């Protein structure tokens, strides 16, 4: 980063500013309720200046979710290297709970906004990621019961992490309770090493 | 209903048609992404004709959610008459799972749409209902752990019930798996009488 030219750094900063404003507006007005014009207005940009970075709202949404999806993919791949079904589910659960706690606003957009879910599913970005996470969590209990429990855990942690819920806990406590809730639902044993280590993949 | 004048029945039907179209558009475009004009267009009404029934989008949203909220209130009140904390949580869980399965589209709007949640919370409609449900479910395990598990169960069942999830099960199977997932998360014993009876309050 220190060797980047000022011009590149400026463009990167602007891109990140646009993404941050977009997440905030998506969370408040939902994806469908947020136009590129609203994002441009919030930034004090002309629409043409915004177009220089993102041509469509869909392109902007992909830029918003891609860093998080990259982290989810990394957790899935690490989980798949674990030896037992229980260890794979435990690793997936701990990693997911950690992401949910660290990205509460973005998770609320991803978990609940009908417009976002449909758009990402239509482009195949979200569907395969959700399916891979569900498979890792559901593997401990084969059959539809395991699939439903895995879906409940994923939706439940993302939904309960919304900043607007009644929960007013610090990040560490919330992460720990999410992992405990998920272990119970999925009937996972509590591993011998402290959760703290597994919760930060 | 048989004694209603044709005029009243007509107005009631029109009101219900507006509500049905609104739910469909909220689910597809989210609440913030759906204008009264879009609802009027979809129905082939003028905006003035729609105003005759609903003056604001917020008024329409209240009409959409009020029947469901009425059912939630009835479940809460029945649950509160149960003798033990476990029986109260079990009754709340079974009733909630049943509603989630029978109103999948509407639950998706209520559980995930940031615009809906903020609007209903701001008017005090949703907050107290969620709090009462969480209290009934969380009572089995006092402290923050019980509260987090209750929030995960409520958000998880609503989120996993979305029509867009991977689950393709019939209503009875889905209801049964939701109740099982909730019982595990909350550490409830399986009651002796069949779930079917308690799942239809």
Tell me what portion of residues of chain A adopts beta-strand conformation.
under 5%
Radius of gyration of chain A, taken over Cα atoms and rounded to an integer in Å: 19 Å
Indicate the overall shape of chain A. Answer: elongated
How far apart the termini of chain A lie comes to 24 Å
Structural class of chain A: mainly alpha
Largest sheet of chain A: none
Largest interface: A-B, 53 and 54 residues
Separate helix tally of chain A: 11
Give the oligomeric state of the chains in this entry, treating copies of one chain as homo and distinct chains as hetero. homodimer
Give an account of the 3D structure:
By secondary structure, the first copy, chain A, is mainly α. Chain A has 2 domains: 6-57, Homeodomain-like (Arc Repressor Mutant, subunit A, Orthogonal Bundle), CATH 1.10.10; 65-189. Helix content of chain A is 74%, strand content 0%. The first copy, chain A, is built from 11 helices and no strands. Chain A is elongated and about 55 Å long. Chains A and B meet through helix 1, helix 6, helix 7, helix 8 and helix 9 of A and helix 1, helix 6, helix 7, helix 8 and helix 9 of B.
């Amino acid at each position: 980063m220190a060797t980047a030219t000022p011009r590149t750094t400026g463009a990167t900063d602007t891109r990140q500013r646009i993404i941050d404003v977009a997440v905030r507006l998506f969370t408040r007005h939902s994806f469908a309720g947020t136009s590129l014009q609203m994002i441009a207005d919030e930034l004090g940009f002309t629409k043409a200046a915004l177009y220089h970075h993102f041509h469509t709202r869909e392109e902007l949404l992909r830029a918003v979710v891609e860093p998080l999806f990259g982290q989810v993919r990394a957790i899935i791949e690490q989980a798949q290297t674990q030896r037992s079904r229980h260890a794979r589910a435990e690793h997936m659960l701990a990693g997911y709970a950690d992401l949910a706690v660290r990205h509460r606003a973005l998770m609320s957009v991803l978990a609940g906004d009908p417009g976002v879910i449909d758009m990402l599913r239509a482009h195949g970005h979200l569907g395969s990621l959700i399916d891979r996470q569900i498979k890792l969590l559901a593997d401990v209990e084969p059959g539809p019961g395991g699939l439903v429990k895995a879906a409940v855990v994923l939706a439940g942690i993302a939904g309960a992490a919304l900043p607007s819920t009644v929960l007013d806990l610090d990040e560490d406590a919330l992460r720990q309770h999410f992992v405990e809730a998920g272990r119970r639902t999925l009937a996972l044993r509590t591993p011998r090493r402290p959760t703290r280590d597994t919760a930060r993949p």
